[in-house]
Amino acid sequence: MRKDIHHDTVVRALQKDGWRIVDEQSPFTIEQRTVYIDIEAERSDERRLIFVEVKGFQGDSQVTDLANALGQYLLYAHVLEQEYGDARPLYLAVPYGAYSGVLSEELGVGIRAKYGVKLIVVDLEREEISQWIP
C-alpha cells in the first residue's frame, strides 16, 4: 500500500473543499483478495460519502498511466458496487497537468465517457480542487 506522490495534497484539497477524511487506504475484501482505496471522505452537511483514488500520472507515458489508472478505477468501482450498490461514488483525483493532457484529448475523453470515470482535478500548487467532473 504505497501512497501516490500527490496523496497528501489531495487530502488537503478535499479538506479545504469541506470534506472530512473518514479513512485512508480503506480496505475492501472479496474472498481472499483485498484492495485498498486511497481516500474515503464525507460531507456531513450533505450526508454524502465518496471514495477517491489518487493518480499522479508521473510515468514516462501518460497513455500508460491512463491504462493503469483506468484498470484500477474499474476494479475499485466493481468492489464498491459489490459492497454498496451504486450508493458510493468513486472519483479519480488527478493533477491539472494530467487533466489538461491525455484526459482532455480524444483518447481520454472517450475512455472517461465509455466507462463513466468521475474526476477530481487538483491544483497541486494551491492544494485546491479546481474541478469536479461527474
Structure overview:
The protein has 134 residues and is an alpha/beta fold. It has a single domain (14-50, 61-133), classed as Trna Endonuclease, Chain: A, domain 1 (3-Layer(aba) Sandwich), CATH 3.40.1350.10. It contains 4 helices and 6 strands. The chain has helices at 7-16, 62-84, 96-100, 106-115, and strands spanning 20-30, 33-43, 48-54, 90-95, 118-123, 128-133. A 6-stranded mixed sheet has the order 1-2-3-4-5-6, with helices on both faces. Strand 3 (48-54), helix 2 (62-84) and strand 4 (90-95) form a beta-alpha-beta unit. The longest helix is centred in the middle third of the chain and has 23 residues, at 62-84. The chain is globular and about 35 Å long. 31% of the residues are buried. The mean pLDDT is 93.
Class of secondary structure makeup: alpha/beta
Give the neighbour order of strands across the main sheet.
1-2-3-4-5-6
Q: Tell me, briefly, the overall form.
A: globular
How many domain regions?
Answer: 1
Under CATH, the topology is which?
Trna Endonuclease, Chain: A, domain 1
Going by CATH, the architecture would be 3-Layer(aba) Sandwich
Helix content: 25-40%
Query: What's the helix-strand series?
Result: HEEEHEHHEE
Give the overall average pLDDT.
93
Backbone CA Rg: 14 Å
Query: Major sheet: size, sense and barrel closure?
Result: 6 strands, mixed
Number of helices: 4
- Which regions contain 5 or more consecutive residues with pLDDT less than 50? none
Distance between the amino and carboxyl termini: 27 Å
CATH class reads: Alpha Beta
Record field, number of beta strands: 6
Beta content comes to 35-45%
